[in-house]
Amino acid sequence: MRCLLPAAIWLLSCAALQVAGVYDYKSVLQKSLLFYEAQRSGKLPSNQKVKWRHDSALHDKGNSGEDLTGGYYDAGDYVKFGFPMAFSATVLAWTVVDHAAAYQKAGVLAEAREVVKWATDYFLKCHVSEFVFYGQVGIGQTDHNYWTQPEDMTEARPAYKITASAPGSDLAAETAAALAAAYMVFKGVDANYARKLLVHSEQLMKFANTYKGKYSDSIADAKNFYASSGYVDELAWGAAWLYRATNNKEYLNIVNEYYSSIMYQDGFGWDSKKSGVDAVMYKVTKDAKYKQRLVAYCDYNFNQAKKTPKGLIFLGDWGSLRNAANALFICSEAANDGINTASYRATVKKQIGYFLGDTGFSYVVGYGSKYPKYAHHRSSSCPDHPAACGWDFFNSNTPNHHVLEGALVGGPSSDDSYTDTRKDAQHNEVACDYNAAFQGVIANLVEHS
User: Does 424 reside within a domain?
Assistant: First the structure.
């Protein structure tokens, strides 16, 4: 069954019969890692596989001249937003800790570690003293005013930090979680680096728990893009990862101190860590209270949450696939720990079929025969010559110049409709946090299929 719409507009409501496909999960896992390479800021390494990217933002500095180069550009733009970057790094490290076998099976374990390290190297630079951490480089709206390649940026890129007098418990604790999870990735590979990660993780957790406040109250520009709803879930999340990494009861006490106030706030994403706490703590403790909440969360999402007519779990219109992937990852991890294993894995696999092509369209750039050609993403869209880019190109019908392999776009609306256009960031932008849990689900499928 063919849809006869123009190539630029693929309305899935008239697309194809919903037939479950057979997918090469190893290929998807490999491509997702390439997406993170395409998001790299700073001086690129000699083994960079994504060759259309080059060195960029080499003058990113802190207020006192500190080197803040590196890290990841957030989405289709070039701001380095520390809060969602740290969330992405935590999830990516988690996938490597618990699914190294999957990455090994796909032949990309070393590459997966490098994806984590690109973030953690940057976080170490940002943590310039015990109670000072840089949480953003670049001005959101200024950055968004230009449609160009990162290599051609000329606008100012100021840096913003949290301190004891301008705290950010959520940002500090999320970064502590990322460094603790990364410690577990590297402790058997590079012991000296792992120890450094753990020292900074524990310092940041102390910072988060001593000087309390929302980071987006201290970094005003972040409030326009990644405003935090609260920091208690991050305090529990950071402590959960440090407890898993160290078995130090001090961190278990922190989890216990805050858990009762967030117990029923199920959810997982860059601003919501509660169900992640449940998954990590159940793995470590096998405490029934965490299992109970995981079952409640997964059973709700699988059986009661809104679904599109073609069956996608629909938890919100902005980044609908990202929202679903976050839930699928938590429930994949629950299944790994013996919670409704067979039924949860079956549901996860069926849902991922929607992402990869069961409707006749793949939402992962570069995977399958029909996939997005107009992702809302500056660097991959632009021709290599700066004069050929800009808003005229953005508004044109010319497909993106480079294939952003592995990138998961935002996804369809609640009626399964989707238009492949750069002009619709809500459904067609990509982001580091979009791919993080999605990559974790794919790693599960590689390991268990």
Answer: yes
CA–CA dist 251, 353 (Å, integer): 39
Q: Which of 77, 98, 333, 447 is catalytic?
A: 77
Residues whose CB falls within 8 Å of the CB of residue 403, separated by 6 or more in sequence, listed in order? 365, 366, 380
CA 277-278-279 angle, to 5 degrees, is: 95
Question: Is 376 noted as a catalytic residue in this protein?
Answer: yes
The answer on pLDDT for 10 being more than 80 is no
DSSP 8-class letter at 302: I
Helix segments in 2-98, DSSP class H? 25-38, 82-98
pTM beyond 0.90, yes or no: yes
Query: What is the structure's pLDDT at 15?
Result: 36
Cα 240 to Cα 253: distance, rounded to the nearest angstrom:
10
Q: Which two tokens stand for residue 240?
A: 């959960």
Selection from 409, 270, 276, 258 nearest residue 332 by Cα: 276
Q: How many domains does the chain have?
A: 1
- If one compares 440 and 5, the residue with the highest pLDDT of the two is 440
Q: For 263-317, how does the pLDDT look when each residue is reduced to its tens digit (9 = 90+)? A: 999 999 999 999 999 999 999 999 999 999 999 999 999 999 999 999 999 999 9
- Among candidate residues 200, 376, 377, 402, the one labeled active-site is 376
Q: What is the pLDDT of residue 20?
A: 63
Residue 77 falls in the annotated catalytic set: yes
In angstroms, the CA 36 to CA 427 distance is: 19
Instruction: Give, in order, the Cα–Cα distances in Å from 156 to each of 57, 132, 137.
Output: 10, 22, 10
Judge whether 420 counts as a catalytic residue: yes
The interaxial angle of helices 109-126 and 25-38, nearest 10 deg, is: 30
User: Does residue 7 surpass a pLDDT of 60?
Assistant: no
Exactly one of 143, 221, 233, 429 is catalytic; name it: 429
* 447 part of the active site: no
Strand partners, 408: 364
Q: Tell me whether residue 40 is in a domain.
A: yes
Q: Is residue 342 part of a domain?
A: yes
Mean pLDDT of 28-54: 98
Model pLDDT for residues 315-324, shown as the tens digit of each residue: 999 999 999 9
Predicted local confidence at residue 238, as pLDDT: 99
Domain of 215, in residue numbers:
12-448
- CATH number for the domain spanning 65: value is 1.50.10.10
The Cα–Cα gap between 162 and 435 comes to 27
Task: With respect to residue 33, please indicate whether it lies within any of the assigned structural domains.
Answer: yes
DSSP structure string for 60-81 = -B-TTS-B---SB--SSS--EE
Which one of the listed residues 234, 420, 433, 447 is annotated catalytic? Answer: 420
